[in-house]
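QA checklist item 7 of 12: single-chain prediction sanity check.
[x] sequence parsed
[x] length recorded as 274
[x] structure emitted
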Amino acid sequence: MKGKYFLIDNKIEYAANYQMQDTEQVVYEVIRFYGGIPLFYEDHINRLKHSLQIVKRSVPVNPITLLDHLFSLRKANEINVGNVMIRVEFYKNNFSVIAYFIAHAYPTANDYLNGVGVGFLEAERTNPEAKVVNMSVREAANREIAMSGVYEVLLVDQHQHVHEGSRSNFFGVKHGELYTAPLNHVLKGITLEKVFQIAEAMQLAVHLEPIPQNDLSNFDALFLTGTSPQILPVKSIGAISYDVYNPTLRIIMEKYDELIAADLNKKGTPVGHP
């Protein structure tokens, strides 16, 4: 946890009082705060509810009440910029809804300008459409990222197909058209959905198809999407290099920034939550 306080079942508590419990399952969501405002909040809550439906869990999540408590949590911790983890923890006979700020590592201005390096990890999620904690994949990805010094690793399944990153979605760009994995094979991120929205407005073709690992060299450009990376150019995967200044990629990045600005302007600063 980051900060002195966390939220548990609609109550602000000291982080030092948090007690880890044995869980049967954890469904989670991560929301990014910009200037004290949660970005794309409604989209994130809808995805949280969708994840709960997929794993057949019934939890009454009131978006308005939760938002009010998140603002209280932000104010208590005096944090205006950062990521908030929302966890629905299921125990043997009950559950809790917990939220707290977590450490984040946003890409630098240089990363957005010149791109980042990416690697591979042979792993796949058992239930990719639901945002459920999977420590084995997460820990393996963290080890590979630390050892190879890359920003992210793309998960390679038993058929040598690449569907998503360990904590991101990804797109390939070829001749001004977009390619990404079928949506039932990935965790459909909020930023990924925004890219679809941008592509539709720009009348860009989007191909949803399995992407063999050995076909990645055929793309003109590659980019990651996610809550922390937003839209991040990939400069290389091993010996394969990509055009980080690809016009289609750069226009999508600009359009995404416009969506962020529109969302923040729409929300403004809620009354009572400076």
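[x] summary fact logged: The CA atoms of residues 171 and 180 lie 5 Å apart.
[ ] second reviewer sign-off
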